[in-house]
Design a protein that fits this description.
This protein is α/β, with parallel strands linked by helices and 379 residues long. It has two domains: 238 residues, Type I PLP-dependent aspartate aminotransferase-like (Major domain) (Aspartate Aminotransferase, domain 2, 3-Layer(aba) Sandwich), CATH 3.40.640.10; 124 residues, Aspartate Aminotransferase, domain 1. The chain has 13 helices and 15 strands. The protein has a seven-stranded mixed beta sheet. A three-stranded antiparallel beta sheet has the order 8-7-12, with no helix packed on it. Strands 11-13-15 form a three-stranded antiparallel beta sheet. Helix 3 packs parallel to helix 9 and helix 9 crosses helix 13. It is globular and about 70 Å long. Bound molecules: pyridoxal-5'-phosphate. Pyridoxal-5'-phosphate binds next to helix 4 and helix 5.
C-alpha cells in the first residue's frame, strides 16, 4: 500500500473561518466585544447552560473556576491522576493542594470508587475530567460527595454529554478548550459555563482585571467619566473577537464534526476490537462521546511488540500517534513536591505506559482510516 502521512490531529478550518475574521478586523472591536458575546450565547444554548463566558484558554478557565469557588491556601481539590497537567496546575495557582485520585482503565476517567478515601475535612472541590471527550460519571460523584463543588474539566468535551445533559452543566462550573488539538478550535481559547449567577458574575469580573464595569458598558454608557471599580485582584484572561468569530463558525459545525468522528470511531472499534492485545474505547450506556481522541490500550503481555515500538513502527508508516496523556503524579514537579511514586496510582501509570492515541480528525478520508487499520492489523 502506498505510504500516507496522517497527523494525529488537524483543525477543521477553511474559507468560512477565514471570512469570519473580516468582521472584527474591519469593525475595530477586536477583543471581548460583540463576537465574543455571540460565541458565548451560541455555546450556552448548545450546552444548555444559563451562562457561558469566553476566556483565553481552558487552563485559565480552570484557574478562574477555582478562584470563583473561593479555593485558597489550605484547601484540597481532588483531580484524576491521568490528565493534562493543567488540571492540577490550576489548583497550584490557587495555592491549594491537588489530591490525586486514580482512574478507571475502562474509561480513563476518575475512578468514582476511590474518591471517598481521598476526602478530608479540607477537601473543597473536585475536578472530574471528561478525558478524550467521554464524560466522567458526575451523577455518582454527586452521590458520593454532595458537599464538594464540581468543576468539570471539559477541555476535550465540547458537545459531549450524558443522556440529554451536555457537558458543562453537569457540575457547578464547566471549563472547555479550543486549542487546535480539540474538536473545535479558535487557535487558543476557552469557555466557562455555569447555571449559577453569582459564579458567572465573579468569572466575568475576574477575567477582565477584576473590573466591575465592562469596557463595553463604559463605551455605550452616557457617562464617559465612569471608571470601573476594582474590588478584587483580577486577571487578563479575555478572548479576542477574532478568535470568537472563528469560534462561532466552528461551533455551528460542532455536531456535524462529532457525528463524523463518531462514525469513524465506530469503524476503528469494529476493525480493531478483534485484535486480542488491544482494548478499544468503552462507552457507558447513554453517554455521548465527543471523540476529541480515539485512545487504545495495549496489553503488552500479549502484544507482539511494546507500546513504544508500535508507535515507532506506525511513525515509520507515516501514522502519527501519541500516548493518551500524562500520569501527572509522575511528572517532575508533582512527584518531587508531593513525594509520590508511579505505583501510588497504578492505573494512571499503566495508562501512561500502555495507552496510544491514533489519528482521528475531520480532515481524514476513508483511505486514511483503512491505512491505519491495515498498518495495525499487519503487526
Ligand atoms: C487541553 C486540555 C487542557 C488545557 O487546555 P488549554 O486550552 O490548552 O489550556 C486542560 N485539561 C485537559 C483534560 C485537556 O485535554
Amino acid at each position: 500500500m502506498e505510504k500516507r502521512n496522517i497527523p494525529i490531529a488537524l483543525p477543521s478550518m477553511g474559507q468560512e473561518e477565514w471570512e469570519a475574521t473580516r468582521e472584527p478586523i474591519f469593525s475595530g472591536w477586536i477583543t471581548q466585544g460583540p463576537k465574543v458575546a455571540e460565541f458565548e450565547k451560541l455555546f450556552a444554548t448548545r450546552h444548555k447552560v444559563k451562562h457561558a463566558l469566553a476566556v483565553s484558554n481552558c487552563t485559565t478557565a480552570l484557574h478562574l473556576a477555582l478562584v470563583a469557588l473561593g479555593i485558597k491556601k489550605g484547601d484540597e481539590v481532588l483531580v484524576p491522576a491521568f490528565t493534562w497537567v493543567s488540571t492540577a496546575n490550576a489548583v497550584i495557582y490557587c495555592n491549594a493542594t491537588p489530591v490525586f485520585v486514580d482512574i478507571d482503565l475502562h474509561t480513563f476517567n476518575i475512578d468514582v470508587n476511590q474518591i471517598k478515601d481521598k476526602i478530608t475535612p479540607r477537601t473543597k472541590a473536585i475536578i472530574p475530567v471528561h478525558l478524550f471527550g467521554l464524560c466522567a460519571n458526575i451523577d455518582e460523584i454527586n452521590k458520593i460527595a454532595p458537599h464538594l463543588k464540581i468543576v468539570e474539566d471539559g477541555a476535550c468535551a465540547s458537545g459531549a454529554g450524558i443522556g440529554d445533559k451536555p457537558a458543562g452543566g453537569l457540575g457547578d462550573i464547566g471549563c472547555f478548550s479550543f486549542h487546535p488539538r480539540k474538536s473545535i478550535t479558535t487557535g487558543e481559547g476557552g469557555m466557562i459555563t455555569t447555571n449559577n449567577d453569582a459564579f458567572a458574575e465573579q468569572v466575568n469580573m475576574l477575567r477582565n482585571h477584576g473590573a466591575s464595569v465592562s469596557e463595553e458598558q463604559r463605551h455605550k454608557g452616557p457617562k464617559p467619566y465612569i471608571l470601573p471599580e476594582f474590588n478584587m485582584v483580577g486577571y487578563n484572561y479575555r478572548m479576542t473577537d477574532i478568535q470568537a468569530a472563528i469560534g462561532v463558525v466552528q461551533l455551528k459545525k460542532l455536531d456535524t464534526l462529532i457525528d463524523e468522528r463518531q462514525k469513524w470511531a465506530e469503524f476503528y472499534t469494529k476493525k480493531l476490537s478483534t485484535i486480542p492485545w488491544l482494548t478499544t474505547p468503552s462507552i457507558p450506556n447513554g453517554y455521548k462521546h465527543g471523540w476529541q481522541s480515539y485512545v487504545l490500550y495495549i496489553d503488552e503481555a500479549k502484544a507482539p511488540m511494546k507500546r513504544n515500538d508500535l508507535m515507532e513502527y506506525l511513525q515509520q508508516k507515516g501514522i502519527s500517534t501519541r500516548p493518551g496523556t500524562h500520569a501527572v503524579h509522575t511528572l517532575g514537579y508533582y512527584s518531587r513536591t508531593f513525594n509520590i511514586k508511579p505505583a501510588d496510582f497504578p492505573n494512571a501509570f499503566a495508562a501512561n505506559e500502555y495507552s496510544i492515541s491514533i489519528p482521528l480528525h475531520n480532515k481524514m478520508v476513508k483511505e486514511d482510516f483503512d491505512y491505519v487499520v491495515n498498518a495495525i492489523k499487519l503487526i
